[in-house]
From TrEMBL:
Belongs to the DHNA family. It comes from the Bacteria. Keywords: ATP-binding, Folate biosynthesis, Kinase, Lyase, Nucleotide-binding, Transferase. This is Bifunctional folate synthesis protein. It comes from Sporolactobacillus spathodeae. Pfam families: FolB (PF02152), HPPK (PF01288). PROSITE patterns: HPPK (PS00794). Residues 207-218 form the 7,8-dihydro-6-hydroxymethylpterin-pyrophosphokinase domain. GO terms for molecular function: 2-amino-4-hydroxy-6-hydroxymethyldihydropteridine diphosphokinase activity; dihydroneopterin aldolase activity.
Length: 293
């Protein structure tokens, strides 16, 4: 069982609510917060720098609850979880409960509340572009991804030039794989990458057609899930050289869930490796080092 830090029944006055009177008059809010973190180092050394300062957490929650209003306490809870996990890297997960002790509804009840849990998850995305300034599009997509609250780009593979997949006549692609840390659930992450594609004028008029940018969620932790919108892991990872080659470089020993074989093993045993050429080697100089001269 992971170690935890609890901040319970923090009390603030804010102006959140769907009704006009809630946003004009305000009301009291209670917040319970639970952080998962490893506490052995702090406990064995008595060193404050090796734990999470709960006084700083309190101040951040206070600033959010007493700050800009929102209609839903669900939104308030998301703001708190996102901010706390962004600010305190020692926190692996955050559980937030926002309570309205006196909501403006008729009936007998003690309170109304919402509770959410968000945790850091490693995910891997595949990026590709074969229109115009291909490398520039890749970099722009990475920067937009890194600016999304709840997402952090960790590192990228080298860039590979690859022959187009499928029957459509088109230019060669530049492809890479990227490791990210996120607190977003899978479908929320899918919405985010599709919004980035749309902002970068990605068109979906031709299946397997040319595109300014393509962002695919390859893996989300070790999740195995198949829905109408999203299959995890991506069902084509083990068959596509332009995905396997950058993944084998980025995370060679990462095991593909469901198949239970590592990326490097899948690459080494792939029969069709043709059409994937190293275009630019990652120099390891930070998240975007491969784009520097």
């Amino acid at each position: 069982m992971p170690d935890k830090i609890f901040l319970d029944q923090m009390s603030f006055y804010g102006y959140h609510g769907a009704l006009p009177e809630e946003r004009q008059l305000g009301q009291r809010f209670l917040v319970d917060l639970t952080l998962e973190t490893e506490l052995y180092a702090a406990g064995s050394t008595d060193d404050l720098s090796r734990t999470i300062n709960y006084a700083d957490v309190f101040k951040q929650v206070q600033a959010i609850v007493e700050g800009d209003p929102c209609k839903l306490i669900e939104t308030l809870a998301e703001r708190i979880a996102t901010a706390v996990l962004h600010t305190f890297p020692l926190a692996e997960a955050c559980r937030v409960k926002v309570i309205k002790p006196d909501p403006p509804i008729r009936g007998h009840y003690a309170s109304v509340a919402v509770a959410i849990e968000r945790r850091r998850v490693m995910a891997y995305l595949g990026l590709g572009s074969n229109i115009g300034a291909r490398a520039s599009f890749l970099k722009q997509a990475l920067e937009q991804l890194d600016n999304v609250p709840g997402v952090r780009v960790i590192r990228c593979s080298s860039i590979y030039e690859t022959a187009p997949y499928g029957p459509v006549e088109q230019n060669d692609f530049l492809n890479l794989a990227v490791q990210i840390e996120t607190i977003m659930p899978p479908l929320a992450l899918l919405d985010t990458v599709q919004q980035i594609e749309k902002a970068m004028l990605r068109k979906r008029e031709i299946h397997w057609g040319p595109r300014t940018i393509d962002l695919d969620i390859l893996l989300y932790d070790q999740t195995i899930s198949h829905t109408e919108r999203l299959a995890l892991p991506h069902p084509e990872i083990a068959r596509r050289a332009f995905v396997l080659k950058p993944m084998a470089e980025l995370a060679p020993h990462l095991v593909l869930p469901g198949i239970n074989r590592s990326m490097i093993e899948l690459w080494q045993t792939l029969e069709e490796k043709e059409g994937v050429r190293l275009w630019k080697t990652s120099n390891g100089a930070g998240k975007y080092g491969l784009f520097e001269n």
